[in-house]
Structure formats: structure tokens, C-alpha cells
UniProtKB/TrEMBL annotation:
Pfam families: DDE_Tnp_1_assoc. Residues 6-89 form the H repeat-associated protein N-terminal domain. It comes from Lacimonas salitolerans. This is ISAs1 family transposase. InterPro entries: ISAs1_transpos (IPR047647), Transposase_11-like (IPR051698), YbfD_N (IPR032806).
Amino acid sequence: MQIFLDAFGSIPDPRASNARHDLGELLVIAFVSVLCGSSSCAEMAEFGRAKENVFRSFLKLKHAIPSHDTFSDVFAMIDPKALDAAFGKVLAEVAALLQDGDVIAIDGKALRGARGKSETAKTRMMVSAYASRLRLTLATVPADRGAELDAAIEALS
């Protein structure tokens, strides 16, 4: 989890200087809870409380688990580009764990019904790069106008 804490440390904290919960710790709890099936801020807080002993084994949690209101407030204010860049750092560190001979699977998917009413009937495409041994999607890139090969190259770079 230190990889995540280090990456999340670069995200500017949009809250006032008197914020009680460490932003990196809050984001780690949110990330782990979403991986385990949480789909709302209330579920993140509930998951955090249920697994507080586990989180305390690697987080300080000076003020216990944040409330659902705290999760909501943070996600309403946080810079999405900074959060995306932090996840990019995490993925770069994980990608460094790849070894010679590891398989990177490339897969294209059509996103049916994923267009606005004003858009043409052409189906949107996404291309993903998946590290088989690590069981991790490394990148997902849109394939503009059906250019799946270009998107695959971009996903691998």
C-alpha cells in the first residue's frame, strides 16, 4: 500500500488546513473499498469501519475512519486530473514489476449504447492492455474511428 500512499501524496488537498483525515489514507480506504465492491461513499465508510483493524495495520488513522460525508466532500472537491496522474504513477510502478516473458494481452471492446443522442450510430471502441501474471489492466484507451491498432500501440506505450 505504500505505493498508493506515495502516489496519493502528490495530489493537492483541496480541503481547509484543519482537515482531520489524511488525504492519502482516505483515498486508500476508498480505493480498497471500491475494489471490494463498494459503490457509494456510505459503503466506503461502512467498509472502512468493518475493516478498521486491517487498515490500522498499514495506516495511522489518527482520527479513525472518515464518515460518508467526508468521502463525499473530498470527491466533490478533488482535482480529477491529479487523481488520474497519481493512478498513472501507481500503474507505472506496477508495470516495472513486469518480467521478461510476461504476457500482455490486448483486447478491443465495443461499448454498445455508449453515445449521446447527437452522435452518429457508430459504436465506440476501447482497447485495453492486460498483464496476465499480475492480473492487472495496465491501460485502457479509446479507439477513435475504429483505429484499434493505433489505440493498442498507445496502450502499450
